[in-house]
Specification:
Radius of gyration: 19 Å
CATH topology: TIM Barrel
Oligomer: single chain
Shape: globular
CATH architecture: Alpha-Beta Barrel
Distance between the termini: 41 Å
Structural class: alpha/beta
CATH class: Alpha Beta
Order of helices and strands: EHHHEHHEHEHEHHEEEHHEHHEH
Helix content: 40-55%
Number of helices: 14
Number of strands: 10
Length: 344
């Protein structure tokens, strides 16, 4: 594993903490985001689980790297998927909440609907793996006030929905382009709804790049120094570069290429004490192993790369993370933060 060069080993006192996350958006959920037709096999014969999740499990086992898998409640109700999730949990990985139905634009729904999405997913996860999740990520990085307020009402310990990037308008445009090209100009309600609610609302790019106690009414605002840590919500923003605040997570960085991705990830690691690095299940599924995903130039760069190229990118990223930082399970990190706050 690696990219043919040795990365400088950072002294222990300078090494950042790394939290590795994997969003297991099932193939059916990805298709739904882009208004694409779903097949009967998408839910039960899902390459995101049978290939992607299984391959991530093997890679993390080889590297002895703990990770947090954000899963959709509906997938937990499929016996084969539940069995794989139990295997992940038994190997020491954390299972977190990614909503029940992966409804992008969750923050635009009623408070009752959002509460139900979170509660049903937590119930399904507990049923599948025997432990209730303590963290949440909204589909589409929807760190809207309504979502964060619901996460706090649910009593979860942390949220990881916020992507503090300045590139939100560009990323939303790319999502719209993928949606329109995938649907070939379809004006169906599903197509019009797809992609709405990506990347939250408000000036999320103002948020801290490192974990912080957030204000659920203004998720980009830190509550440092005010109130009790135990009664507040810990936000774990997904990693971005320092000044331009460009996303460095694998699904986007892979489309740009390793040369840029390495520099961007190194910059994020060197400029923050804690880095949340995100993979998606499709990042280890080759373009010929998942059918019916968006095509075109953008779709080919995001979804259709061959498996060997995707695996090479994931291995290089994982090598850089492990050689530069200290990887912690998210729940362990959250407990450490709360303990330090209590000791002050």
């Amino acid at each position: 594993m690696g990219d043919g060069k040795r990365h400088r080993m950072v002294p222990a006192l300078e090494r950042p903490t790394v939290l590795i996350h994997v969003d297991l958006d099932g193939l059916w959920a990805v298709k739904r985001v882009y208004g694409l037709p779903e097949t009967s096999s998408d839910m039960h014969q899902d390459p995101v689980y049978s290939l992607g999740a299984a391959r991530f499990l093997d890679l993390f086992s080889q590297a002895q790297a703990p990770a947090t898998f954000f899963v959709v409640g509906r997938d937990c109700e499929i016996p084969e998927k539940a069995a794989l999730l139990r295997c992940l949990a038994e190997r020491g990985h954390e299972i977190a909440n990614h909503s029940y139905s992966h409804a992008v634009g969750l923050g635009r729904r009623s408070a009752q609907t959002i509460d139900r999405e979170i509660a049903q997913a937590s119930d399904a996860i507990q049923q599948a793996v025997g432990r209730r999740p303590i963290g949440f990520r909204a589909p589409g990085f929807d760190a809207s006030p309504a979502v964060l307020q619901a996460v706090r009402r649910a009593g979860l310990d942390y949220d990881a929905s916020l992507l503090p990037t300045r590139a939100g308008p560009l990323l939303r445009a790319a999502a719209r382009f993928l949606r329109s090209s995938a649907a070939q100009g379809s004006s169906s309600p599903a197509c019009r709804r797809a992609g709405v609610g990506h990347y939250g609302s408000g000036p999320v790019w103002r948020a801290p790049r490192a974990p912080y106690r957030c204000d659920p009414d203004r998720p980009w605002r830190s509550l440092a120094g005010r109130g009790s840590m135990r009664s507040s919500l810990l936000e774990l923003p997904v990693a971005v570069t320092p000044r331009l605040r460009l996303p460095v997570h694998a699904s986007i960085a892979m489309a740009v290429g390793w040369a840029w991705a390495r520099r961007a990830l190194e910059a994020a690691l060197q400029s923050s004490g804690t880095v949340v690095y995100l993979f998606h299940g499709l990042d280890l599924v080759g373009g010929d192993e998942a059918e019916g995903l968006p095509g075109g130039f953008v779709g080919r760069r995001v979804f259709a790369l061959p498996y060997r190229r995707k695996r090479d990118f994931v291995e290089r990223s994982l090598h850089l993370l492990l050689s530069t930082g200290d990887v912690l399970l998210t729940g362990s990190f959250v407990e450490r933060v709360r303990q330090r706050a209590a000791d002050r």
